[in-house]
Predict the 3D structure of the following.
Amino acid sequence: MNIVVCIKRVPMTQEVDLEIDGDNKGVNKDLLAYVMNDWDNYAVEEAVLLKEEFGGDVTVITVGSEDDEEILRRAMAMGADRSIRIDPGDRVLDSYVVSRILAEVIKGIEYDLVLTGVQADDDNCGSVGIMLAEHLGLAHAAVVTGVQAEGNRATIRTELEGGIDEVSKIRFPALLSIQTGINEPRYVSVIGIKKAKKKELEVIGLEGLALSEEELSPRTAIEELYLPPETESAVILEGDPSKVADEIIRILTERGVNI
């Protein structure tokens, strides 16, 4: 089984005081550390598990600069066989442009399955995988929490609202966007990363792709990014439960909430 996994390098923003950059269209990333997107980490692991069970090879792809090659090396240390970096140059990227670029490269690869993460830690859009499936004309499923492949199809489990799972079948070739928790990503040793650095990494420029200016034009734009306004601190109500309940009703009524 040949599998393509699309991955992304994202900044670590947990427990960090983020600052808006000078043009109010992003955050200051100069002092932030970068890692492989968490959802993509699970997608790589799932691809490697399937390869170990059924054979074939795993190709990992990212759209980014030379700095983004570190996550490709990490994916190869996890068990991927081949890696491709697509250099976008100074192009402005949104979910549509990224999905269109990925589709142009992937269509030249022999594959049975394409995996992406459900979403990315930095923008939380969750749309690249589904757009990519549409560009490639693939059957697809989102928020996948289980994959059992057999022959030219797979039984998949997808996460729905309210803690409900849906079990269905999908034929290959197909695209699945992988949810965290589907597996336990393996530990990557320093020695493994050093060995991965010796493996060939292919770099493709946009000039080598048959994409028009229209196809490389973003469909969305950030007008302004700002931090949530500070509000009054929380009020802690103490005392007899019945009196506290009356006070809560009074506060909600004053603020226009219909009880």
About this structure: The mean pLDDT is 93. The first helix runs from residue 38 to 54.
